[in-house]
């Protein structure tokens, strides 16, 4: 698994969107027992906190120590630094394993056998990602210019799996049907710009290579198309994979 987010760990925790209650309700409806869950590649612990409200115990792991340092703390969450593909956990110990916005970075050939090893026989797996933010047609054109034209060559190749809505991602489990879901949040223009400038991995790569932030190039266009609104509703489509081993 690649670590592309340690440099902006604090900003990631502050500016990344959270996930809707409907997503967790959907996942929990497939879970038989709520003893122990593993949130793999937890990042700032967004999903782990939601699991902790339902499960007796949650193990949350990430290969980035800096991400773990900025994660939300709960009494029943244990954070550990380790890769997704090789863990210290005993066999068949988890009722649920989740991966939020990270499965596309994994070494699939190594991760899925590890997942099968640590899931209980009746255990459930869910992984999801979200696409490019949508606001209005005018704002979307500015965002797409940033995403495709300015940053196209700076994205890691695995990002294409999100662009393909997780339809082409390897998934050796028996799938469960997933509903249509999205993240919807009211954000200020400042928050919206900071989300791109401070959390997108391709932006950080661009800055490292060129010494300037590409978001500065499109910020005036975003401000113009924002048209003075205090906030606007931002929508991200969610791509959800769920299943069990047979």
TrEMBL record:
Pfam families: Methyltransf_11 (PF08241). GO terms for molecular function: S-adenosylmethionine-dependent methyltransferase activity. InterPro entries: Methyltransf_11, SAM-dependent_MTases_sf. Keywords: Methyltransferase, Transferase. GO terms for biological process: methylation. Residues 39-126 form the Methyltransferase type domain. Gene3D superfamilies: Vaccinia Virus protein VP39 (3.40.50.150). This is Type 11 methyltransferase. It comes from Estrella lausannensis.
């Amino acid at each position: 698994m690649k670590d592309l987010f340690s440099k902006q760990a604090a900003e990631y925790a502050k500016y990344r969107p959270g996930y809707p209650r409907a997503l967790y309700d959907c996942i929990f409806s497939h879970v038989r027992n709520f003893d122990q869950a593993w949130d793999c590649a937890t990042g700032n612990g967004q999903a782990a906190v939601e699991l902790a409200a339902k499960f007796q115990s949650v193990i949350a792991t990430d290969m980035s120590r800096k991400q773990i340092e900025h994660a939300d703390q709960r009494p029943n969450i244990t954070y550990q630094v380790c890769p997704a593909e090789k863990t210290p956990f005993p066999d068949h110990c988890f009722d649920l394993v989740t991966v939020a916005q990270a499965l596309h970075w994994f070494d699939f050939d190594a991760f899925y056998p590890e997942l099968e090893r640590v899931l209980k026989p009746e255990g459930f797996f869910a992984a999801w990602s979200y696409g490019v933010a949508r606001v209005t047609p005018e704002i979307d054109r500015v965002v797409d210019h940033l995403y495709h034209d300015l940053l196209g060559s700076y994205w890691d190749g695995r990002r294409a799996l999100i662009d393909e809505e997780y339809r082409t991602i390897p998934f050796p489990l028996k799938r469960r049907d997933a509903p249509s879901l999205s993240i919807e949040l009211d954000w200020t223009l400042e928050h919206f710009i900071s989300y791109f400038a401070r959390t997108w991995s391709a932006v950080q790569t661009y800055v490292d290579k060129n010494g300037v932030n590409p978001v500065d190039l499109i910020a005036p266009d975003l401000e113009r198309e924002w048209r003075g609104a205090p906030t606007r509703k931002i929508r991200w489509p969610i791509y959800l994979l769920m299943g069990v081993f047979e």
